[in-house]
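Lecture 7 notes: from sequence to structure.

We start with a single chain of 485 residues. Read the sequence below before looking at the structure.
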Amino acid sequence: MGNRVWNGKRRFIWILSLLLLMAFAVTSGISYQVAHDSLSEQIEENNLPLTSDNIYSEIQQDLLRPIFISSLMAQDTFVRDWTINHEQTPEKLIRYLKEIQDKYATVTSFFVSEASRKYYHSTGVLKQIEDIDPDDAWYFRVRSLPKHEHYEVNIDPDTADQNRTVIYVNYKVYDFDGNFIGVTGVGLAVESVKRLIELYQARYNRSVYFSDRQGNITLHSKQYSGGASLQLSPGLENLATRILTSPSASFSYQKAGETVYLNSRLVSEFKWYLIVEQQEARAEQKLLTTFWANIALSLFITLGILFIANMTLGKYQRKLELMASTDKLTGVANRQAFEEYFARSLAQSVLESTPMSVLLLDIDHFKRVNDSHGHNIGDLVIQTLSQQLKALLRSDDLLCRWGGEEFLILLPGCGLSQASEIAQKLRKQVEERQLTVNGCEISVTISCGVAECRTSEKVEELINRVDIALYQAKEQGRNRVVLSY
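Now the structure, written as tokens:
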């Protein structure tokens, strides 16, 4: 039986696996073909597929260069020695800043001394920093940055030319003992960075812009059509918090009736978010149509699999339930079935206030049968007796093989007196009937214990009482019934 169950289960698994493989092969094949065609269109139309990683790589080459330059300036031995030596010969530092500006093509380069508060520029000493001047707030903000934060990126008017807006990289400078001695850095023209963004957009056919950690849009191209912040941009109101709390994320939202796909990534060096958007295209609509077709196909196949699985599992479940609740030799109930049936019968007995009793019977001197005729004949005797007992019981009664040559009978609705009458009837019928098994004439008798279930009595206690009554029947000479009061 176990091998047959296993073979059946194995066949079922193979069928299920083949169906799933077919479903995945068909849906994946369709998806691949359509995606391939769509991607080919995208490559042909846009030159190169866009990912936020592509843009980020170019930013590292183009926009992070000023941070590297500022870092070199802050670590430069000349700058630190010149400052420590009381800022003598300012023309040397001015010449140094001019060389930095010319060499790296920045729009400005500067140094502010903590000791003198002078603002050194590539064109000369522009001013003296004052804590009461709002335009100088940036310096005190950078100076108060935590020790582990070495620089700040901000957008402000150019100190040397108020009509020009500059992206500054302000880098803290320390002497050789780790003491703060000033701020240095370079600047990029905002217009040149915007042109760089427009170059990205033209190259990848995507919308590119930047947001700070608060959601304010810091840089964008002329074609930008959103709000001044993420929170004020149509369609992004509910996504702003999720964008600003994740180092990288992908979303989609509705804008002017179209789906817009958005990728965001934190550029940690700038402490800004790079945001790349693309509106839904025909190729993507084609992919979406195919997706729903795949879903419908998968659903159809899944329903077919479930139908087959339900039929197969139901078949095996019934077999397993039968095996689990039936004695293999006699075909009557086993102990597990008795426990379940007893619980239901007890609940009904309590509900209806009716009695319930059990009989525990044993074949007398069964060992002699085995010794005289063999175990095979003994098994046939047990089978024959079980059929005889079953024929004499009511439809609601439960005959259970308890173990070996013992049988337990549950009698719902029977008190001790009625159960005793049934037990005597069974005993007499067995005694009077001559069993013919494979041509052998065999006479058997049974001993029986009877007990009525008491209120709130556990099944273990009931079985123990009826077992004691059976033992007493054997002690008193066998082929008799003893009641447990």
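The chain is about 50% helix and 25% strand. Keep this in mind for problem set 3.
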